[in-house]
Design a protein that fits this description.
21% of the residues lie in helices and 28% in strands. It is an alpha+beta fold.
Length: 143
């Protein structure tokens, strides 16, 4: 290489992190269900900044986040209904949205779903279609 010439290095970024959405039916407040999820799934969900959609910035949907320092998987529990308004218009009847972000095998996702359903205060856990959740995914600013 001659002096004065810079070599160009291209960095490849893998944006193929997968995400899975569950809808949870549970009449309890968000802090109670987050504690139960922490115990059942061995997570560390903590209260985080609330979510406010662009079309309704005065409505705040509570959010709990678990980012493990040495893991490439993150979890979010987001309240889906506040004062007769819902974050996800496609799933208005659900109380909570639970997002798992990371490359996880389907068998583990199914096991997590079963463990959530085992929580006594939870009356239902539903796998949600990813294509209906893209707006929510971008709103939660997950990367």
């Amino acid at each position: 290489m001659s002096p004065g010439r810079k070599s160009l290095h291209r960095l490849k970024i893998d944006n193929s992190i997968d995400h899975h959405f569950f809808g949870i039916s549970c009449p309890e407040p968000d802090y109670k269900i987050s504690l139960q999820l922490n115990n059942k799934l061995n997570l560390n969900l903590r209260s985080s900044s609330s979510v406010s959609p662009a079309d309704n910035p005065n409505t705040h949907f509570g959010r709990f986040v678990s980012d493990e320092e040495y893991s490439d998987t993150s979890f979010q529990l987001v309240k889906n209904r506040v004062e007769n308004k819902s974050l996800s218009k496609s799933y208005e009847s659900l109380d909570y949205l639970f997002l798992i972000c990371g490359n996880i095998e389907d068998s583990i996702i199914n096991e997590l779903r079963k463990k959530i359903l085992d929580i006594p205060m939870v009356s239902g856990v539903f796998s949600l279609e990813k294509n209906k959740m893209q707006t929510i995914y971008s709103l939660l600013q997950i990367y």
